[in-house]
Amino acid sequence: MRSLVAKGKTKAAVELAKEIHKRCGRPESEALLVDAYGARIWSLQEAGLKKEAKELFELVRARHSGSSARLVHASVLVSASDGNLDGLLRPLGDPVLPVETRRAIEKFVKDEVCDLNAVAQCATLAADHPLSTAASALVKAFAAVTTGPVEEPALALPEVSHRSALASWKMLVRAVAYFYRQDDQACERCLELIDPASAPARLIPAMRTMLGAGTRKRLPPATESLVERVCGNTASLRGALQTLDSAFQTIDQVEILVAIQRATVACSLAYPELLERLRQHISVRALELQLPLRKVRAAMGGPSIKNAYFWRLLAWSEENSRKPMELLICAHWEQFRRHAVAEGWFQEKSQEAAALYLHMAGLLLDMPAEMLNNLRKSFMARFSGFEAYYEDQPPAIRAVETKGKTPDFYFLSPDELFERACSIDPHREAFDQWLNWAREEYDWQVADYVAERWHEALPHHCQPLLYLMESAENRGALNKATAFLEEVQKLDAVNPEVRRAALRLLVFRAARHLRQRKPHLVEQDLAALEALPQAQEGDRPAFLAALRWACEVIRGNTELAASLLSQIGRLLRNSDAAVLACRQAGKLGGLKQADLDQYLRQEISLDSADSLASAVARVCALVDDMGATLTIPKSWHGRLAEELAKGSGKLESRQMDLLGKAALRDNQRELAYLISARGLGMGGNTQARFLLLRARALPEWEVDRRNDCIAAVVELGRRQRDLAVIKEAVELRRALRNPMWSFFWWLDSESWHDSSMTTEEINAVLQREQRFCAFPEQQASRLRTPFGENTASLCEEELETNDEFPTLEDAAHPAAEMSPPREKRQKKDLRDFPVTEDLF
Amino acid sequence: MAHANIRLDEDPREILGVSPDASVEMIRNAYLRKVKENPPDRAPAAFERIRDAYEVLRDPRRRARLLFFAGDPHAPLADLVPATGSARRFTGPGPWVAALREK
């Protein structure tokens, strides 16, 4: 009989059970018959024959009242099929309810009941019954998670035990909460914990569709409606926005306005929450294209909100465009700051605000100082605020607008921006940037003020004290310099920069006493120098001996001076080097040329085993080490150039770099060029340095080569993380601009901002410069990119007969043509020059 | 680089599941929660992304740069529309119950 039931043949099972009971007539056979009837009732219920099932149940219960306990499940089914939840749940209030009955009822609740509210409000269930309290809690929680975000404590639901018939509902509530939190993994985990046979499991397909998990299956109508209401139908909106993007590319006003209108209508239908954001993006694009704003507003069906998001978008969009930097960008960033503070993005004096100030300062530093001053004056005279932007804005937005007050143009002054940034968030990079700017653009007093501010804010930093010491030293205020040195030595005496500064200052003091002809004080200085551990390193003892030599020359002690000269020669292992070191020490000490010529030979020693280039380079490095600069005797230039051209002598890269700088100081470009050729031939990590030297050494008319070298230097410096070489390259580039063409330079500023080069481009520059070992001969050059068809070359014969020069149609026109055509490089994301974070 | 595991187009805030205006404490709590869910021994790749996202967000200066320069202002407008399944609007319990009742 049980086998027949298992196969679903309940009618045959009942017939068989009847036959058995008819024959046996025992309680066991009766129990078997009732079980068969129970299975039959179940199958009728499953087949939807609820009425027949109920009638059969009533009949069996009446005939076999003693076995009614065996009809528990059927009884539950019949009650439930009536929709009679009260009747179904009533038995749960009976404390002596048999376990099987309780389980059957709870199973039905778990698998079939969808209306938790009905369970919570069931009159036949006591209010404190666990099922009732669980249902109530779940009703509230479910409403909460489908209405808005909820915090984690609200999902605890302690009223719902994990053994409860409603346990799967708890998982469903959590799954929905995590779904709205965009925590898809947590949502999926909760869905997996839902009993697949339970009522909440009916929502699993819908949720998985909304999660985008797996392939999209066809869903029943109400479920499909749920998915659409939650996730929206955005296909049509996407299409409209793609059309709008294409219209913006055409820059056809009519087409754009029509596309704007269609896109905003599609958005309001399909995704109304996005409408405001879309309007803001459209407004910014329209401003960029200078479309008539009233028409755009009409097409959008209303104005865009000019909140923090809008101003940030506008400012960032302008920065990201390929146009030259304008002061208006800073004005937009300032608007963003004010709105962001008002809306709570960050506090007025927060690190975010400081970062913004630094960013604005960085934008302004991109401009030449002179141009910035002029533009600032012009801007302040003409700028009347952004009132027009606010005329159709809600009160909360308008409240942020400054009315009636004279606007504060602090955002146009790098100085004020740095001041604000460093007050709020004092840190090394900010102060360093400020100090460098002050040193470049202003006199020592401004730079000293910045260094003092730095020291005040960050008293444990050595840099500001070292700068102040150097500044005092440059002004000849030795006492002050010494005081700063003592202060920085207290902070960090073993710092290599501090050690070097101490050495340099003492050398400077000794040189000053030499110039003052106070040999007794020079002796004291030399004693102090010799006491420094760092003074015994490398070739430094030789320079100290050279200072002593200068002292003896002042005293007129010829023998001792000669002895010292020999000693220096032994220390440096080269008599020419000794002569050069003494010559340099003598110059530092203010010795006259006559004295130098009397005590030192002018000719190069012919018996020197070492090359002259090696000797000079070594002394160059030594002198630089001591904080001075070398002057190469003019009579030595020829031999030096000869040796460099031949590649004689062993030279270190640092020595060569310094030698090259010494040559440039003497305006010996050819010599510097030869040194750069030697350096470039060495390869390795120093190529950036020697490319920079090459750029400096090139004749002025080699504009293209120089620009290429500078660009390659910046890129190499970026890759090698050499901030110093980048800075030098940038300074060289700025220094090369011709004030006459500064306007055109600025219009063509796109090329100045794009300093990135590919590896192939860099290699091409290096190979070219390595190939051109000889200094370029001056020649009459043709402009590589003539102004236009009418422009005559300087070499052409027509120039002699044709007196008409082309007129400039457009001031901007020559700028593009004066510079050589080059491929557009990938523009950097940020307009500020690389700072440490960007590089690394 | 500290945030080498995050792609350039990824928002660290989305990785940690915090709102743009989340406080430092909320960011930290979100980070701890994510790390608990993705411990380094079980999900090393996810853990590193979460850690890098936290490194960006906990540094106020990096966070500021994220705030100012997030997104490409010249990206197609169609990118404003989230991909299907990402837009999740609250509807109240009604549509959910209606779907539940549907067998």
Question: Can you offer a commentary on this structure?
Answer:
The complex is a heterodimer of chains A (840) and B (103). Chain A has 840 residues and is mainly α. Among the domains of chain A are: 2-120, no CATH class; 702-840, no CATH class. In chain A, 66% of the residues lie in helices and 0% in strands. In chain A, α5 (72-81) packs parallel to α7 (99-112). Chain A is elongated. Chain A starts with a helix and ends with a helix. Chain B is mainly α and 103 residues long. Chain B has a domain at 1-72: Orthogonal Bundle (Helix Hairpins). Chain B is 51% helix and 0% strand. Chain B has 5 helices and no strands. In chain B, α2 (24-37) packs antiparallel against α3. The longest helix of chain B is centred in the middle third of the chain and has 15 residues, at 44-58. The radius of gyration of chain B is 17 Å and the shape is extended. The N and C termini of chain B lie far apart (53 Å). Classes of the chains: A mainly alpha (840), B mainly alpha (103). Chains A and B meet through α9, α10, α12, α13 and α14 of A and α4 and α5 of B.
Task: Show the helix and strand layout.
The complex is a heterodimer of chains A (840) and B (103).
Chain A: H1 2-6, H2 10-24, H3 27-46, H4 50-63, H5 72-81, H6 85-89, H7 99-112, H8 116-120, H9 130-147, H10 167-180, H11 184-192, H12 204-211, H13 221-231, H14 235-250, H15 253-270, H16 275-289, H17 293-300, H18 308-320, H19 327-343, H20 351-365, H21 369-382, H22 387-390, H23 395-398, H24 414-424, H25 428-441, H26 444-457, H27 463-475, H28 478-492, H29 496-515, H30 519-531, H31 540-555, H32 558-572, H33 575-588, H34 593-599, H35 612-625, H36 637-646, H37 653-665, H38 669-682, H39 687-697, H40 703-720, H41 723-736, H42 742-747, H43 749-753, H44 759-771, H45 798-801, H46 813-818, H47 836-839
Helix pairs in contact in A: 2-3, 3-4, 3-5, 4-5, 5-7, 9-10, 10-11, 12-13, 14-15, 15-16, 15-17, 16-17, 16-18, 18-19, 19-20, 20-24, 24-25, 25-26, 26-27, 27-28, 27-29, 28-29, 29-30, 29-31, 30-31, 31-32, 31-33, 32-33, 33-35, 35-37, 36-38, 37-38, 37-39, 38-39, 39-40, 39-41, 40-41, 40-44
Chain B: H1 12-16, H2 24-37, H3 44-58, H4 60-69, H5 93-101
